[in-house]
Every structure is written in C-alpha cells, then in structure tokens.
Amino acid sequence: MITLDQIATRRFVFVSVIALGILSELSPIVAQQSAPTTSWAQSVLTPFWASSRMENETLFFETMPNKRYAEARLLFVPTHIVSVTSADGAMVFEEGRDYVRKGKGDTLTLTKNSRIPVKTWAEMHPPKGSPGTLGEAVGGNSTLFFDPTGAVLHTIQVAVTYDHDKNWKGYAPQPAEKNIPRFIAKLRNKEKCKLVVFGDSISAGAGASSTFHAPPYQPPYVGLLEDGLRARYGADLIVSNISEGGQDTTWGVKTAARVADESPDLVLIAFGMNDAGRAIPAAAYAQNIQKMMDVIREKKPDTEFLLVTTMIGNAEWAQLTFPRFGEYRDALARMAGPGVAVADVTSGNA
After folding, report:
1. Domain co-membership, 252 together with 310
2. Which terminal Cβ of the chain has fewer Cβ within 10 Å, N or C?
3. How confident is the model at residue 8 (pLDDT cuts 50, 70, 90)?
4. What is the pTM of this model?
C-alpha cells in the first residue's frame, strides 16, 4: 500500500539503497560500451548523500488548520535553488511569484496567488465513510486520502533541484555485494543472468509515473535498478517481476514456488508494508521470508537473495504498528550472510 508519505518524501532514498545491495559503489554511472546509459540511471542512481546537488526532491504542500499558507521542508538548506517544477516537469514555478523562502532556510512557503498545487488538511483527511480512503487516521476522527496508483498525487507534487553545502549526517548504506558473489561475477563477466523481483505494490510499480502513463514516465524502482545494472555492467540481464499489490509474506510463502520456476540467479524479496498493516509479528515475518528462500533453494540451490527492508508508512495511518518496521529490519539484518544480502531502506527513511 503506497501512501502520500512514502511517495512524496522518501522516493530519492529508495532506489539508491537497494542498488547498494548489488553495486560495489554508487558513483555516477559510467556506461559500458555495449549498453548505453540512460538519463534515469545517471540521475537516480547517483547517491544524494555523496553529492552537493539534490535532483528533483519531491514536495507536497498542504494547508494546515492553523496556517494561512501551505509550506513544505526540503532535506537540506539550499545555497541555490536551480528549479521548482511540477512533477511532470511541464510547469516551472518562480520564487517570489509562487513561493518564498523565508530566511533562506529549508522551508518553501506558497504565496497567496501561487500556481503550485495545494490541498487542505480536510481534503487529505476525508470524513469516515468517504470513498477513496486508506483507513482511519490516528485519533479516530477522520480517514486518510488514498491514491492506489499515484496518478492523483503525481499532479499535486513539485520537484525541486537545488545546490547545498551540507554533509549528510544521516544513514548512509554500505555495499553488500560480497554476500552475493555469484550474481556479481555474472554481471561483471557479462554472462546471462536472471533477477526475479518478489514483493508487494511498491515493487509492482504503484506510484511511478510510467505505471499510469504520465510524464515524465519514470520507471518504477525495478526498472531504474535494471537500467542501472545494464549501464554499469553491460550485462546480459533478464528481469522478471512477479510482485503483486496488497500482498504480504504469507502470500509470499504460498507463491514462492512460482519464483523457483523462474530459475533465478538473484531474487529480490521486498515485503513488509502490508505485514505491518496486518500486525504480523516480526518472528512470523522472518519465518515467512526464510520459508520463501528455502522453497526457492530447494529447486535452485545456488540462488542468491537481496532482502529489502520496507520503507516506513504514513505516521498518521492508525492501522500501522510502527515498532514493527524496525523489528522487521532487524530480523532481516540477522539473515545476512553468504548468499543473502540486505538493503536497509527502513533506516534510510527514518
């Protein structure tokens, strides 16, 4: 289940962290002669924590009940704002006309006649019983607006590119390629290799502009990862995605045989959001992940795995049990070892 919080503020962390499970480093992509690089691979797989330029950080503006104008915070304090555009890049917004940055800080505030889309708190918290909602909000007095495809949220976000001079002091993932040496060797040797992605709606592509055929047609993270691997290694790579929206690890156990039938070299397993929403205990979650790997290895013993910890959901969603996100992450971290790498997206979204 994709929520506003995940799409609007976490997107730029997700792909880079997952890629670090496979790539030895995430320096700017240098194309192999046999596989021309793509603009997506270049822009998305360059880690923001190693750059002084933030590319297309997404913001969503919401007018709170106690505020006159809507505002949103950037991750860093800009030294220079390069551009503020609509999510599709079609409209360019202007400082002074559409937004102001008070005190040259990290917060953009909309002007009275701003052209930037904005929603009120009430619009994002419909009354109980309204159609198109995610579920009860914390406090029990309203629900949460829900956009299952991301098509609506895409039209009400902006993308900000800016320079900054701050060193990132938050979580910075480390490469985990040593745990999946067979797959890495095949990539480097340009041998035919197969990656199977197995997860929920996040992995299925919900929220990506290309999923609902809208500009700028950015691929889901699976497509971005594939672009990056092809550009970095020039590999003979086959990618199969059998993820399904709304599913959890219980479904994953029942479906693991389908993954085994794909004869994968590497399986990217990414569940957790729906498990947390359904209050599945961390012990059962971990047991289910292990069962998936066991089923797959029974048919193809040399299969390696990249376990992706889930991003953190909307803090206003009453159905989520938030301690479980950390518990799931820790459970997967304990599984890391020969043949099993872990991409910690949870810490990157904390």
Report:
1. yes
2. C
3. very low
4. 0.90
Higher pLDDT among residues 45 and 24, named by residue: 45
Residue 29's nearest CA partner among 188, 180, 298, 234 is 234
Q: What's the chain's length in residues?
A: 350
Region of residue 334 (left: phi > 0; alpha: psi -120 to 50; beta: else): alpha
> Alpha-carbon distance 61 to 116, whole Å?
8
CATH number of the domain where residue 338 is located? 3.40.50.1110
Domain C-terminal end among 148, 163, 178: 163
Q: Are 311 and 201 in contact (CB under 8 A)?
A: no
Statement to judge: residues 144 and 230 lie in one domain? no
DSSP readout, 44-76? Answer: HSS-GGG-SEEEEEEEE-EE-TT-SS-EEE-SS
Residue 19 lies in a domain: no
| CB 187, CB 23: distance < 8 Å | no
Angstrom distance (rounded) from CA 266 to CA 299: 14
* Predicted confidence (pLDDT) per residue in 91-120, tens digit: 999 999 999 998 889 999 999 999 999 999
Extended beta strands in 114-264, E state: 119-120, 133-136, 143-145, 157-163, 192-199, 236-241
Spatial separation of the C-alpha atoms in residues 58 and 4, rounded to whole Å: 11
Tokens of 35: 């596989």
